[in-house]
Design goal:
The chain has 153 residues and is of the alpha+beta class. Helices cover 20% and strands 26% of the residues. α1 (4-16) packs antiparallel against α2. The longest helix has 18 residues, at 85-102.
Amino acid sequence: MAGWPQLQTALAAALASLNPGGNLVVTKASPEVRMQFSVSPEGDQLHAEVTNGTADDDRLPGRGWELCDAWGGVWRRSTVWPATTEQVTETVTEAAFVVRGLWGNPRPEGFGYLAWEEPAPAPAWQFWKSAKEKPLTFPDLGLPKAPEPDPNS
């Protein structure tokens, strides 16, 4: 990937293709930084989350971010879904600005991605898992697949 502008364009295109329960995470291990985009299971919201592991960033609330997990330092913005091309582009641009401009990642080097679609919710009477996550691939991002997180950490 050449730089943030190209990655942002590819991210916006990838997000436009997500179904309800779709998730796309762009992450870097060291120092830990993450942008996560997800379409709610109901298909009515696009959530953008960013984290660098700290809740102590007073620059984000003024930019429309809300601290949703103080322990993990996760900040969230949401917009209606389905969204217009302009809304998706603005969401990606803002998340990338935080990671690039505010948190000091001038190039998307060292970043990888994970993407999946959650299974549709099971009926209330069904207590077993009805399906597995469906992996998604977005080669146009120009990023390698990130390692799966360790469920034991």
